[in-house]
Structures are given as C-alpha cells and as structure tokens.
Amino acid sequence: MTIPTGRKVIFYILLIISGFLVFAPTLMAFAMSFMSNKDIMTGSLPTSLSFDNYVRAFGQFPLLKYLLNSLIISLVIMLGQLILSSLAAYAFVFLEFKGRDLLFFVFIATMMVPFEASIIPNFHIIRDLGWIDTYPGLTVPFFAMAFGTFLLRQNFKQIPKELREASQIAGMGDFKFYLTVVLPVARTSLLTLGVYGFLTSWNMYLWPLLTTTNDNVRTVQIGLKQLQTQEQLNDWGVIMAGAVIVVIPTLILLFLGQSKLQKGLTEGALK
Question: ABC transmembrane type-1 domain location, by residue (predicted)?
C-alpha cells in the first residue's frame, strides 16, 4: 500500500520535528562546550568558540583513566551477559529437565524486582568477598540478566527441534550445537542484547559510586559528577565538554550497531 504524497510529507515533517526535540539537549550541550562560562550564564550568543573547555576537562580530573575504566567494565559486563544469557536460554529451550518451565517463570519474575531493592544485599556480598574497589565488584553482579535470557530464549525457540535431533544423530554434542548452529542463527538478537548491555553499563552511576573509593577503578559518570561543586559556581562549559566526550562512544556504538543490525535483518530476509 502506497502512502499519499501529502501524508508522507506531513509524516516526515513530524519526524524531523520530533528528532530535533529529542536531540536538542545534545546539540545544546555540544554548543555550550565551546562557550565561555560568562556567555553561558548570561544566556548570550558566544563571543568566541574555543577548545579550552575540553583541555580543562582533561586537566581537572583523570578523564582518560575514567574512560578506560568505563570501557573495561562495560565490555566485561556485556560479554558476561551474552555468555550467561545465551547458555541459560539454550538450557531453557533445548535441555529437558523437571520443573524447567516453572524455573523459567521464577527467573523471569525477578525482572519485577527493581535494582535498588537488591543494592544492599549485593553490596554486603561484594564487601564480604573483598571486592570493593575492584573490577569484579563492578561487573559480576550484572552478569545474570533475566531480560537477556528471555530475549534469547524467544529467538532460540524458532530453531526447529528436528535440527537438534538431527545433530544428536550425527553425534554432535550440546556445546558444539550451541556454538555452530544456535549462536549464528541468533546473531541479530545477540547484537541487540550486546548494545543494550554496553549502554546500560556505560551509564551506570549509583553502583560504581557505592563500590569505589578511589580513582583507580572509578567510572566516567563519577568523574562527571566531580566536575560539579556546591562551594563555588559551576563551570558549565567544562561540564558540558566532559558530557560530550562521554556521549561520543555511545553514539558511535549506536550507529555501528544500527548498521550491523540492518545488515543482519536484510540477510535474514534474503534467506
């Protein structure tokens, strides 16, 4: 069914307006990152544009160290979620055991428990294990992911059971079937889950704030908060410069993930 030209024009105009409204805060932050604090506070047009705010952002706190910590933590959490979620989804789909469906529903029910409700127990466990100010303390609590297991389970259920039976006749074990058949079929869902897990981990603030006490393992979100002070006037140009630097990796990941996802969907449609 073809959409009339008039409707199409109105549709694209609304999309452009909506996109501008959503992206406006990012554009404003980007513009403010090149302005002096005087221009920002007076609300006037910038008298000059310079990179001084970016230089000062790198000088006021160890931004590169924080970026590296955030990258390591996000990648480890993403890989942990992909591995555990895919293995759990495989077990819930292809392995027959008593109480499988009941266990799955109990597992999915944990999605209704907010993360804030489990912070105190998780913190006590991390403290007792001696994982304060360590990468395991920042990553391991997020490996088990009910949403990821649910997403991949729904995708794995599309694989015919006859294919699994044929692989058993051919002498293929569960792990080989999981690696050579299941994971390639589910690569689009794995990519979606990976991007979601990375972005969620990159933007974490509360958990790193609780489990870190020094700059060696602190993430970039904590660093951005350190740029703000209550004792004196905030330098919003430097703060916006730091925010733009933090946003750049997530935008790159989103653009790359979107192109890969579209490519995967096209290949799947052709097959």
Answer: 67-257
Q: pTM score, two decimals? A: 0.84
CA dist., res. 242 & res. 19, Å (int): 23
Residue 256: predicted pLDDT? 77
Per the listing, tokens 């733009």 go with 244
In this structure, the number of other CB atoms found within 10 A of the CB of residue 70 comes to 24
Segment 87-134, tens digit of pLDDT: 999 999 988 888 888 999 998 898 888 888 889 999 999 999 999 999
The CATH fold of domain 61-270: MetI-like fold (1.10.3720)
* Type of residue found at 85: S
* Domain segments of the chain as ranges: 61-270
Does residue 210 contact residue 119 with C-beta atoms inside 8 Å?
A: yes
Burial of 201 (C-beta count, 10 Å sphere; 0-12/13-18/19+) = buried
Q: Specify the amino acid at residue 189.
A: S
pLDDT tens digits along 30-70: 888 888 777 777 777 677 777 888 888 888 778 889 999 99
HEC-encoded secondary structure of 16-55: HHHHHHHHHHHHHHHHHCCCCHHHHHHCCCCCCCCCHHHH
Q: Is residue 85 pLDDT above 70, yes or no?
A: yes
Give yes or no for a contact between 254 and 195, defined as CB atoms under 8 angstroms apart: yes
Distance (Å, rounded) from C-alpha 170 to C-alpha 172? Answer: 6
